[in-house]
Amino acid sequence: DGGGKPFLQQRTIAREIQLKESIGCGKYGDVYHGKWRGEDFAVKVFRSFDEKSWFRETQIYNQYLLPHENILGYMAADITSKSDDMTQLWLITHFHKNGSLYDYLCNNESITKHQAARLLLSTVQGVVHLHTEIQGAHKKKPAIAHRDIKSKNILVKSNGDCCIADFGMAVVQEFSGTKVNFPSNPRQGTKRYMAPEVLNLSINMGNFESFKKVDIYALGLVMWEICLQWETDGVVDPYQIPFQDMVQPDPSFEEMRDVVYVQKMRPPLPNRWQGDELLSNIAAIIDEAWHDLADARLTALRIRKNLQSAMDDEGK
Ligand code: ADE
Known about the structure:
Strand order of the largest sheet: 1-2-3-5-4
Number of helices: 9
Strand content: 15-25%
Bound molecules: adenine
Shape: globular
């Protein structure tokens, strides 16, 4: 049993919540600001064709995940049929007024070392929680791989820490095994963030570890996005989405395959990072996260430890 509230309570919340303004729209649905009993929440309304993502995300929250400060907080899910062909699929979560990490990086010209460190560590901590199996007497969760890690699926909380969202594609590992429990969901990850082994179709879909390594590749890209906005000696780079100058705005699978797998390109590590001890150490971590060979990538836990020691060493 995961961290979900009782079903009847979820229904009550969904029936009583008032929808306010739209705070985001995407291919798979729209997100609204909502109010329930005086408090702010976010309501994700899924497109009816994407019922399987709603089902999977709801299942992940209710059955598999445990609440964690770096995972978007879950309140309720609801499904209502207006008529035979009109099904409404809702997911109600905590609301974060800063919006996504992508919005946050676009809206801020620069971030300080302190802010960047919080964004980095908290994002990595969220992935560590997902990837880790917990087998306690009272707390139990399987290892989960996200499969669509990107800056638009990470939210920035008002304390400056991140939390991970969108579990519509997540896969779950069998307890103490290697087998994978799949969603019956045809949705694919975001092409721009796809790892080389996904792009060249060589990924071993039968082994759960493969999916953790795919997450780590995408995590490397997200870490790069954060570091780009990190100001050193008054210099900062404008925000760029990964591969901004290398592919079209909505790249095709073939285009990404060519750039990432055939040409083995990665986003550029700015020269100015080499002049900063901490940033150059983090660049080395990023380089091992988005490694061409999945087996050579660091684990989330190792990234957290390396980041922590790079930050502790700083100024010694
Ligand atoms: N955009 C998508 N999900 C959100 C959330 N939970 N809070 C704020 N903005 C969001």
